[in-house]
């Protein structure tokens, strides 16, 4: 934590310098803020990882595009499954939320068949105080406690309560490990 | 001689056989005709109608008589009535008989002898007897030579009559149905003769063949053909041989080949003479007979034919090889190439920078030119100057150009000053043998390169005045198309191309010799005008780099130094930096792998003025020595000695620990400073006896002082150039040039050579550099705190480059130290009267760091004055925790007196800054220790650990007479200090001859050396060993070893933590980004994503990954990619 404070403190100092050097437009500065912030988030996730989740920028070195993994929590139909997600951060992150998608096909009341997620903190409830790790934690808990009031997948929402066994089967049917490279 | 003749005869026989097998028709027919001398008329000739297409007229029946030769009795007489093929005429046909007789007379007169130039006396004489000259002078010829004892006149008359009979056969002898073409017969005769007798003699070339040919020539000469010719040729051969011997001793090869060529020419001339004589008499006869004048054209045709024949035959033999050797030699002399080779070989050639080409009117040159002229003309006469000769000549000239460029300009780099050229030339040679032992030239900075390089100028001159001239001459001799002006230009550009190639080859040495090789650079600059050459240059240089620099044998320092030279050289070569950019990647890649490269650069940047001066001095001395070596004289030796002394001082000044460098570039500023004598700041112990001669030769360099100098220089330059940011928009820039053709897409024209910037960027990310810089600065600040002048300067310059924020930490560190001083005096004032003198040591320790709030570390430091005052100056340096590199606290117990002082200080501090608390980093301090021993007092500046250890040896009671003796293990308990550190400290004191190791038990037992005289008293069995250790130790080593050891230890925990974090990164990466990754990609990702930069080298990462593979956390899959091992199988 102390390390982070340090770098964040020094950030305002360094910005004017680099800005003066490049004479860059505002957008560049925003972009720089975003990458700086993401770098710190990454550092934080690496130094104090949360169990069951992990994330990392994509293989091409682009900090604005991440891949994440959630291990399905025990006591949920998703136990033992590895679920992959993609994060796409806007240039003015963290002021706007990242676009998050499940890449792994998942059968879940709040996720549609193309991986889109219905989660308030990724929409109107987003604040810059959230970060990648908190989003992932929220998603992890969403796996065990779907919001069946506003489903994207009505059938799943229905089965969740009515027939957990069938739900589990559907989950396993839908699930497919992605071995991307 | 006889043997030789036999051998050559045998060779001829063999050649003939071979020849027959190929050209059987021709040979056969020849001999047939030749053998027809006395056969019964009407026989033997019947079937063979000989035309110019003689090859087709085979007469198998007469073939057996192949050995018959004119002038000898037929060895195998023809049977009186052979088969008489095709004799359709009735015997007794008078016309036919007359015709045959006439034919016989005519052919026998013009028949050719059975040797190249008419060997057999009888035939040989008969043949020349027919020559026009002989005919006119026939009366004077001795009668006895005629076979039939007739007068020449009669014979000639008869010949002419017969000829006319033959010519007019149709009218005169209408009955003779069997008519032949006498000219056609002669032509075929000539061909056959040439093939049979001359071609074998053309087999020059190889040495043996040359000998044989020479022998043949000798025989020939002895046999005396065509006297006049013979006389002349013999003369010329003689003169050639004599001339060769005189002018080029040792040129036996050349002489031999010359002999071959001359004998060939002679042979050919002899043969041609014969052929033409025969032909001419025939033609003359015919002309007379027919009264026509039209047959001169036939003579021309015949000549052309025979020349073609000769040219073709020559191409089979080695004559042209010999001609080539001779041409090469002569052209070499004429063009001055030979002289160059000689002087190059002897290494002391007087040629200066623009090589002294032998003057045009030089005696040798004139001789050679004359000789060449004669030779070429002769060759032309005998028809050896055909297309093949032209090609050959072109080859020779091509070779000449290469050799000239190489001989005249190799190693001649500073062309503007002859003396300079000499010196540098030597340096270049040395550089070729060993990369870094080059004695670099001096004074290069005084030579201002001319607008066009002298080399180029002299080369162009040479091409125009010598090369082209020779070309024109030779071409005119052989009547070829003359050279045009465009050809001259082409030649010049060709020559420049050669020069460029040469310089490209030399480029690495040129770089090493920077700045003395500016002349060579000018050459290159002017000649690398095409993309292809630029590519060749970069490719070649990259290769040279790999081979000569980027290998484990070169220290990082050397590589960096060379890199600096490279940057400068290439900047001079190509301001656009494109070339540099093309060769840099490999170098940078390699440098990044060198762990110490950043450190070397930083250390170089921080080199003090004294170090720079010392380096410059060493260099100056080197230079002087070199000059002196050149100037012999009795004074030289003495002066040399004196200078060495000075150099030794320069090497051994303590403040400058080994700052010798022989390779810094010279700048006027440092030079002028050299007037001052030795460093004022250095007492210079100067162990000249030991170091002098050795170090004087050693070119070892400890610091990149060039950088410091550059930094200082660039300070002013940069300020001046600060405004030209928008250079691209400067419409008034008259020096504007377009971007180079091979520039990349995002090419941006750099403003200056910017050595430091290039170097830093070569070392990878800025933050890596800054981190390292911070670490070095921290070390220095904690070390000798006298002045931060250099640090401040470097810091300011770096700030300009990297921005304030990046170097904020350094600012804080320097401020800490400065404020600590103020604080020290304040606390001392407050505690006035407080401190009591400690018994032994001055004052130790140091550094306080702790408290959570941020500020705080104290490093104690002894004041210089304390010694005299017996007043313990206890000083601390307060370090701000966040801004210094993480120091680990080393725990040990300070001596009680010091502890008291520390507490006092702490109190004083906390009084001043109420909410702060000090954490002491005791191991980082310095102490002055004064030791009172029985026979001496020792004062030593050392670090706190060492002071603490020696304090433990303090005599507990004054009365004790036995020296204190302690074991490391005991000290470990007593001081609670790490054993290794204790042992190191004991060794330190042992080297100071304060302690003595008496045993290796218990980690080492040491005893105080109260009297130096005790040193050699053996104590226990290990005494000797201990002593050996003592003597071997050198102070510098010890001093260097101590801190490093501690440093490594300190880092270990931090390192561990780092590994942990890095492992998380790698896990995250392999979980999410990509399931498998090669190491390069991992390194790249780490570099991008780890905050503060990824500090591991490729090797470190590899070994780390290797460990993880062993642990089973990783696995290596196809293509060397790494993959996380799945903990659970769950699909």
UniProtKB/TrEMBL annotation, chain A:
Active-site residue numbers: 118
Any Pfam family matching the protein: UQ_con
Biased composition (Low complexity): 17-28
SMART domains given in the database record: UBCc (SM00212)
Signal sequence range: none
Region (Disordered): 1-31
InterPro entries registered for this protein in UniProt: Ub_conjugating_enzyme, UBC, UBQ-conjugating_AS, UBQ-conjugating_enzyme/RWD
EC annotation from Swiss-Prot or TrEMBL: 2.3.2.23
Keywords on record: ATP-binding, Nucleotide-binding, Transferase, Ubl conjugation pathway
Domain UBC core: 33-180
Biased composition (Polar residues): 1-12
GO-annotated molecular function: ATP binding; ubiquitin conjugating enzyme activity
Family: Belongs to the ubiquitin-conjugating enzyme family.
Record's protein name: Ubiquitin-conjugating enzyme E2 2
Organismal lineage: Eukaryota, Fungi, Dikarya, Ascomycota, Pezizomycotina
Automatic annotation (TrEMBL), chain B:
GO biological process, one term: ubiquitin-dependent protein catabolic process
Source species, domain of life: Eukaryota
Entries under SUPFAM superfamilies matching the protein: Cullin homology domain, Winged helix' DNA-binding domain
Pfam family, one: TPR_ANAPC2
Cell cycle among keywords: yes
Region (Disordered): 38-97, 115-153, 224-249, 625-644, 649-694, 827-872, 1019-1053
Domain Cullin family profile span(s) in chain numbering: 758-990
Biased composition (Low complexity): 115-135, 661-670
Biased composition (Basic and acidic residues): 1029-1038
Molecular function terms, GO-annotated: ubiquitin protein ligase binding
Coiled coil: none
Cellular component aspect of the GO annotation: anaphase-promoting complex
PROSITE patterns: CULLIN_2
Similarity section: Belongs to the cullin family.
Name of this protein: Anaphase-promoting complex subunit 2
Phylogenetic placement of the source organism: Eukaryota, Fungi, Dikarya, Ascomycota, Pezizomycotina
């Amino acid at each position: 934590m102390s390390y982070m404070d340090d770098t964040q403190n020094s950030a305002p100092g360094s910005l004017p310098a680099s800005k003066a050097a490049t004479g860059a437009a505002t957008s560049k500065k925003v972009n720089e803020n975003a990458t700086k912030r993401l770098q710190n988030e990454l550092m934080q996730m690496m130094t104090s990882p949360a169990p069951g989740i992990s994330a990392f920028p994509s293989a091409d070195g682009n900090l604005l595009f991440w891949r994440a993994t959630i291990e399905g929590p025990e006591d949920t139909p998703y136990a033992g499954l590895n679920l992959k997600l993609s994060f796409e951060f806007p240039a003015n992150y963290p002021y706007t939320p990242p676009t998050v998608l499940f890449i792994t096909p998942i059968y879940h009341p709040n996720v549609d068949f193309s991986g889109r997620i219905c989660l308030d903190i990724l929409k109107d409830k987003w604040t810059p105080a959230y970060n990648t790790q908190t989003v992932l934690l929220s998603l992890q808990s969403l796996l065990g406690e779907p919001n069946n009031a506003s489903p994207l997948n009505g059938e799943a929402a229905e089965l969740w309560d009515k027939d957990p066994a069938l739900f589990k089967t559907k989950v396993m049917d839908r699930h497919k490990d992605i071995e991307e490279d | 001689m006889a043997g030789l003749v036999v051998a050559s005869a045998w060779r001829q026989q063999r050649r003939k056989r071979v020849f027959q097998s190929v050209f059987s028709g021709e040979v056969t027919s020849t001999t047939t005709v030749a053998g027809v001398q006395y056969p019964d008329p009407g026989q033997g000739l019947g079937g063979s109608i000989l035309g110019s297409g003689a090859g087709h007229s085979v007469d198998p029946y007469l073939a057996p008589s192949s050995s018959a030769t004119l002038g000898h009795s037929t060895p195998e007489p023809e049977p009186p009535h052979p088969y008489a093929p095709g004799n359709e005429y009735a015997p007794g046909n008078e016309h036919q008989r007359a015709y045959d007789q006439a034919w016989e007379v005519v052919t026998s007169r013009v028949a050719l002898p059975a040797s190249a130039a008419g060997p057999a006396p009888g035939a040989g004489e008969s043949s020349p007897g027919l020559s026009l000259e002989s005919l006119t002078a026939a009366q004077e010829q001795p009668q006895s030579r005629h076979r039939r004892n007739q007068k020449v006149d009669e014979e000639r008359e008869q010949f002419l009559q017969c000829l006319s009979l033959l010519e007019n056969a149709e009218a005169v002898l209408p009955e003779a149905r069997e008519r032949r073409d006498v000219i056609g017969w002669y032509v075929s005769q000539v061909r056959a003769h040439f093939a049979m007798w001359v071609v074998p003699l053309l087999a020059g070339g190889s040495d043996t063949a040359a000998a044989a040919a020479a022998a043949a020539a000798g025989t020939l000469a002895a046999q005396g053909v065509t006297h006049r010719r013979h006389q002349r040729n013999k003369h010329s051969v003689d003169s050639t041989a004599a001339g060769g011997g005189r002018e080029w001793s040792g040129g036996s090869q050349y002489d031999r080949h010359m002999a071959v060529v001359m004998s060939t020419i002679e042979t050919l001339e002899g043969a041609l003479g014969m052929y033409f004589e025969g032909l001419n008499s025939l033609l003359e006869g015919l002309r007379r007979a027919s009264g026509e004048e039209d047959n001169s054209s036939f003579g021309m045709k015949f000549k052309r034919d025979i020349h073609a024949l000769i040219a073709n035959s020559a191409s089979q033999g080695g004559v042209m090889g010999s001609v080539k050797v001779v041409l090469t030699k002569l052209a070499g002399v004429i063009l001055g190439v030979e002289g160059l080779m000689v002087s190059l070989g002897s290494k002391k050639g007087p040629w200066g920078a623009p090589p002294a080409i032998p003057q045009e009117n030089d005696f040798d040159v004139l001789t050679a030119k004359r000789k060449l002229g004669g030779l070429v003309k002769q060759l032309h006469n005998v028809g050896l100057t055909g297309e093949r000769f032209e090609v050959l000549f072109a080859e020779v000239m091509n070779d000449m150009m290469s050799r000239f460029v190489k001989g005249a300009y190799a190693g001649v780099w500073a062309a503007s000053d002859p003396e300079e050229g000499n010196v540098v030339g030597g340096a270049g040679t040395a550089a070729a043998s060993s990369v870094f032992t080059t004695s670099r030239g001096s004074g290069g900075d005084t030579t201002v390169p001319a607008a066009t390089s002298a080399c180029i100028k002299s080369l162009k001159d040479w091409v125009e005045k010598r090369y082209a001239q020779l070309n024109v001459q030779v071409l005119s001799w052989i009547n070829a198309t003359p050279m045009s002006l465009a050809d001259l230009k082409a030649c010049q550009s060709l020559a420049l191309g050669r020069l460029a190639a040469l310089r490209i080859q030399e480029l690495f040495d040129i770089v090493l010799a920077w700045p003395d090789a500016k002349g060579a650079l000018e050459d290159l600059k002017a000649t690398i005008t095409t993309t292809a050459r630029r590519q060749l240059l970069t490719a070649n240089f990259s290769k040279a780099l790999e081979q000569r620099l980027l290998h484990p044998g070169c220290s990082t320092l050397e590589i960096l130094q060379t890199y600096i030279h490279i940057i400068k050289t290439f900047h001079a070569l190509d301001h656009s930096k494109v070339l540099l950019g093309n060769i840099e990647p490999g170098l940078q890649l390699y440098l990044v792998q060198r762990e110490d490269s950043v450190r070397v650069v930083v250390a170089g940047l921080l080199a003090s003025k004294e170090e720079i001066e010392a380096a410059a001095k060493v260099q100056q001395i080197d230079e002087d020595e070199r000059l002196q070596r050149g100037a012999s004289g009795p004074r030289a030796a003495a002066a040399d000695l004196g200078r060495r002394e000075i150099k030794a001082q320069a090497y051994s000044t303590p403040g400058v620990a080994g700052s010798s460098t022989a390779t810094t570039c010279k700048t006027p500023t440092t030079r002028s400073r050299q007037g001052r004598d030795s460093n004022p700041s250095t007492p210079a112990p100067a162990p000249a006896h030991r170091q002098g001669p050795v170090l004087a030769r050693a070119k070892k360099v400890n610091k990149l002082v060039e950088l410091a100098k550059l930094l200082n220089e660039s300070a002013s330059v940069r300020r001046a150039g600060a405004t030209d940011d928008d250079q691209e928009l400067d419409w008034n820039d008259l020096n504007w040039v377009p971007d180079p053709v091979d520039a990349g897409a995002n090419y941006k024209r750099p403003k200056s050579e910017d050595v430091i910037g290039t170097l830093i960027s070569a070392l990878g990310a800025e933050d890596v550099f800054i981190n390292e810089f911070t670490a070095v600065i921290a070390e220095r600040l904690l070390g000798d705190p006298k002045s931060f002048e250099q640090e401040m300067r470097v810091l300011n310059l770096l700030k300009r480059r990297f921005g304030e924020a990046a170097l904020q930490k350094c600012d804080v560190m320097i401020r800490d130290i400065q404020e600590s001083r103020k604080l020290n005096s304040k606390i001392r004032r407050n505690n006035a009267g407080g401190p009591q003198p400690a018994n032994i040591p001055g004052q130790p320790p140091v550094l306080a760091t702790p408290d959570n709030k941020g500020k705080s570390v104290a490093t104690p430091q002894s004041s210089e004055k304390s010694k005299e005052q017996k007043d313990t100056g206890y000083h601390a340096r307060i370090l701000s925790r966040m801004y210094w590199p993480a120091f680990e606290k080393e725990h040990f117990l300070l001596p009680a007196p010091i502890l008291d002082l520390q507490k006092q200080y702490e109190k004083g501090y906390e009084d001043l800054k109420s909410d702060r608390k000090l954490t002491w980093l005791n191991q980082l301090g310095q102490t002055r220790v004064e030791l009172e021993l029985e026979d001496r007092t020792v004062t030593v500046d050392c670090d706190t650990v060492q002071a603490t250890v020696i304090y433990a040896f303090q005599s507990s009671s004054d009365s004790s007479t036995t020296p204190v003796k302690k074991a490391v293990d005991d000290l470990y308990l007593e001081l609670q200090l790490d054993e290794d550190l204790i042992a190191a400290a004991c060794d330190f004191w042992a080297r100071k001859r304060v302690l003595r190791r008496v045993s290796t038990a218990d980690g080492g037992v040491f005893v105080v050396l109260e009297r130096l005289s005790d040193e050699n008293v053996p104590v226990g069995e290990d005494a000797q060993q201990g002593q050996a250790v003592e003597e071997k130790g050198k102070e510098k080593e010890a001093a260097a070893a101590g801190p490093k050891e501690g440093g490594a230890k300190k880092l270990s925990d931090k390192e561990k933590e780092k590994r942990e974090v890095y492992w998380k990164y790698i896990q995250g990466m392999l979980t999410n980004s990509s399931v498998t990754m090669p190491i390069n990609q991992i390194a790249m990702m780490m570099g991008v994503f780890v905050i503060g930069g990824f500090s591991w080298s490729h090797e470190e990462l590899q070994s780390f990954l290797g460990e993880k593979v062993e642990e089973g956390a990783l696995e290596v899959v196809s293509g060397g990619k790494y993959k996380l091992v799945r903990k659970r199988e769950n699909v």
